[in-house]
Amino acid sequence: MSRPGHPAASDGGSPAVGGSADKDIHARRKRRSAEDLDILIGFLGFWALVLLVTTVWMEVTAQPALGWALGLLAAVLGLWGLVRLRRRLPARTGRRFE
């Protein structure tokens, strides 16, 4: 007996697409989203570093740095949140395009 939405196999009714295929698709999506998060973490980390250098420079040269510091705070909090979210997803095992 085949499940709705899954074609029956030619051997008499067992589903051609089993639970393992569904799990494989789900695992591939999680891996892809983890890789996307890695890219976002790198992007945000770069801009956090730029904001850190800018904030320090503004402080050293006695210019107003509050806006830069608040931007740095937002970038660091966003980076912290992304890293926490990334830890819940599976580790990278290879290249993105296989």
Task: Give a structural overview.
With 98 residues, the protein is an all-alpha fold. The protein is 65% helix and 0% strand. It is built from two helices and no strands. The protein has helices at 19-60, 66-87. Helix 1 (19-60) packs antiparallel against helix 2 (66-87). The longest helix has 42 residues, at 19-60. The chain is rod-shaped. The two termini are 35 Å apart.
Offer a few descriptive terms:
mainly alpha, rod-shaped, 0% strand, 98 residues
Short description:
Helix content is 65%, strand content 0%. By secondary structure, it is an all-alpha fold. The chain starts with 18 loop residues before the first helix and ends in an 11-residue tail after the last helix.
The number of E-state strands comes to 0
Radius of gyration: 23 Å
Tell me the series of helices and strands, N- to C-terminal. HH
Which structural category do the helix and sheet elements fall into?
mainly alpha
Q: Major β-sheet, in short? A: none
Fraction of residues in β-strands: under 5%
- End-to-end distance: 35 Å
- The proportion of residues forming helix, as a percent range, comes to 55-70%
Count of discrete alpha- or pi-helical segments spanning 4 or more residues = 2
Mean pLDDT: 80
Bulk shape: rod-shaped
Enumerate the spans where pLDDT stays under 50 for 5 or more consecutive residues: none
List the helices and strands and how they pair.
Blueprint: H1 19-60, H2 66-87
Helix pairs in contact: 1-2
